[in-house]
Design brief:
By secondary structure, the chain is mainly α. The chain is built from 2 helices and no strands. The protein has one domain.
Length: about 55
Amino acid sequence: MQKLAGAFHGFYHDCYVMGDGVSAELTQARLWLVESARVGLSVGLDLLGVSAPESL
């Protein structure tokens, strides 16, 4: 799970998910990647018995 969190942090730091200069197709692909990371981290935390916040 630590590797997933680290990889996601690197991606989010280096890549715009949406905004100027990002095509609609690329935005959609990156949003799916964000959602996949969210699900993976949520499952990992659940397995550890730790709750994750629903929102910020």
